Amino acid sequence: MKIVMLGAPGAGKGTQADRIAAKYDIPHISTGDIFRSNIKAGTELGKKAKAFIDQGLLVPDEVTIGMLLDRIAQDDCSKGYILDGFPRTIPQAESLTAALKEQGTAIDFALNVDVPDAAIVERMAGRRACLKCGATYHIVYAAPKKEGICDVCGEELVIRDDDKPETVSKRLEVYHDQTQPLIDFYSRHGVLHTIDGTQNMDKVFADICGILGE
Ligand code: ADP
Ligand code: AMP
């Protein structure tokens, strides 16, 4: 099963992708997490990506597409995967479609988690992230057991640099301009499903399971 998650930054893609990955036993691949771990490790890729991420801009397609295609070529992806945060531009979606076509396959589901901009701002303001294992929390809606500490790995939680209010509005602008057109793209490919992302996390997940099947 090959799935892509669509939706604005902060819509809940990562939260749901984690649950889907656990239930359907497929890897959760987040391009944002790959960039953040490279930034933390101080790699060349991380240095290149950081300048764009901190400004709320997309990392250029030349960097991102190759990185993602390499990742999905790995052995753990043979049964499928869930892509969270990729594709984010039409050229990314076209490259993915072309690479899959060469293998005689295609994306099975594009899940669009729909949340209006006003709710996004509140979600991003309360988001706390673990840069070690990628787990995500919210100070109100998904608080960790111990304040400021990751339940999964015990690392200290941080506010992502790009979750600051001034960067969030830029990211939303970039989303509407460059990523939202993917909703039409996947609709034309006949695999688009839109879910009301303003519901609580369990209800969003139940709707997704209804789409993906047992
Ligand atoms: P994305 O991966 O789309 O950027 P996240 O999954 O990181 O979004 O979610 C953004 C923030 O909103 C996180 O703090 C998360 O805990 C919280 N969140 C996710 N889904 C919901 C929901 N259905 N209701 C309330 N808060 C949510
Ligand atoms: P995310 O964790 O998905 O919110 O991603 C954080 C940031 O990483 C984004 O705001 C972008 O700057 C960058 N990024 C992640 N995925 C992509 C992508 N597919 N294309 C370009 N930039 C990306």
Automatic annotation (TrEMBL):
Residues 126-163 are annotated as: LID. ATP binds at residues 10-15, 127, 136-137, 199. It catalyses: AMP + ATP = 2 ADP. GO terms for biological process: AMP salvage. Residues 127-162 form the Adenylate kinase active site lid domain. It comes from [Clostridium] aminophilum. Pathway: Purine metabolism; AMP biosynthesis via salvage pathway; AMP from ADP: step 1/1. Pfam families: ADK, ADK_lid. Zn(2+) binds at residues 130, 133, 150, 153. Keywords: ATP-binding, Cytoplasm, Kinase, Metal-binding, Nucleotide biosynthesis, Nucleotide-binding, Transferase, Zinc. AMP binds at residues 31, 36, 57-59, 85-88, 92, 160, 171. Catalyzes the reversible transfer of the terminal phosphate group between ATP and AMP. Plays an important role in cellular energy homeostasis and in adenine nucleotide metabolism. Residues 30-59 are annotated as: NMP. It is an enzyme of class 2 (transferase). Belongs to the adenylate kinase family. This is Adenylate kinase. One of its GO terms (cellular component) is cytoplasm. Monomer. Its EC number is 2.7.4.3. GO terms for molecular function: AMP kinase activity; ATP binding; zinc ion binding. Consists of three domains, a large central CORE domain and two small peripheral domains, NMPbind and LID, which undergo movements during catalysis. The LID domain closes over the site of phosphoryl transfer upon ATP binding. Assembling and dissambling the active center during each catalytic cycle provides an effective means to prevent ATP hydrolysis. Some bacteria have evolved a zinc-coordinating structure that stabilizes the LID domain.
